[in-house]
Design brief:
Elements lengths: L4 H74 L6 H16 L2 E10 L6 H7 L8 E12 L1 H13 L4 E10 L1 H7 L4 E12 L2
Antiparallel strand pairs: 1-2, 2-4, 3-4
Amino acid sequence: MALSSRNLTLLLSFMAVVVLGGGGYFAYDQYGNMEIKKTELETKQTEKEALEQEVADLNTLITEYQKAKASVSEVNNILPSKEALPELIYQLEDIASKEAGVLFEGASFSEVEDTTVSAAQAAASGQPAIKKGLKKVAVNVGVRGTYTGLKQYLDALQENMRLIDVTSVEFSSNVEEGEAAGLNVFDYKIGMLTYYQEQ
């Protein structure tokens, strides 16, 4: 069966239409898939950006938590949750020897009776307000040194992290030691109050 040129042209045209139609359908199908993939990609990018923002927010929260945790620790150093007398002795002795150049001779402690003072009572009496649960400990410290050393010791106590109120200072001359060194050496008895928050 010989094909005439007209039939051959028709056959080739038909095949070209089928190939082009099939190719067009395939291209259209792929274009639809590409649009779906593009939408999915945009969704994933949006989700990724949202997750990155959540991670950034979480990092900010962690940083703020660390700062708050440090502040709580600082508050515990200023106003501990228990008497913490061994730590206080260490601080008092360390201040005497390292910052003031005086000789630490010891300390005695006694708990002061609970004297809760409300804001109204404080205003009427001129005393500072003391909240319920705040406990006071009376501390008597003995140091030996010069007047300059005493001033440095008191300044260092004021700068110390723990809350300490000096209530009295008594002194007596230590003539023997002072004359030997060519200095005016005194024995000082320092009365102070420190506080803690009962839990």
